[in-house]
Amino acid sequence: MPLEPCPACGQQVSVRAPHCPHCGHPLAVPATPPQPVVIERPQQGGLGAAGCVLFLILLAVVAGVAAAATKPDEAALRNAVVAKHGVGFGIGAAIGETIGTAKYTYHDYILFSTLTMHGIGGSERTLATGYFGQVSVAAL
Q1: Whole-model pTM?
Q2: Count of structural domains within the chain
Q3: Which of 87, 81, 96 is nearest to 130 (CA)?
Q4: 74 within domain boundaries
Q5: What's the domain range around 94?
Q6: Do the domain assignments include residue 118?
Q7: 3-state secondary structure of 92
């Protein structure tokens, strides 16, 4: 530990000593009170909750446009029903429509489309549903 002479008595004193052990003369400069620590928060760069809501709305619009643009048309639904249930079903459906015992209706909704059969006595059955380019055919 380095030593230095005391300015009052001249004796050798440690540089870390707060006062001279021989005469009591103060040696160290009184410590300054600690400065307060200021922590600044970085500013937020986004829109916060409003930005999240806006993003979700935009995402829903994009998904809706994609669904509307890729939903199958009436011919695709009819072809899918015939492909699943056979050509006999297709012929029977054509005959039923011609003689008035069955009516097939295509419903074009915003996000999906359906093919519905209306039979005698008011019975109604959804045969196929289409959305996002896919067709789901109901079992008969």
Answers
A1: 0.55
A2: 1
A3: 81
A4: yes
A5: 70-137
A6: yes
A7: helix
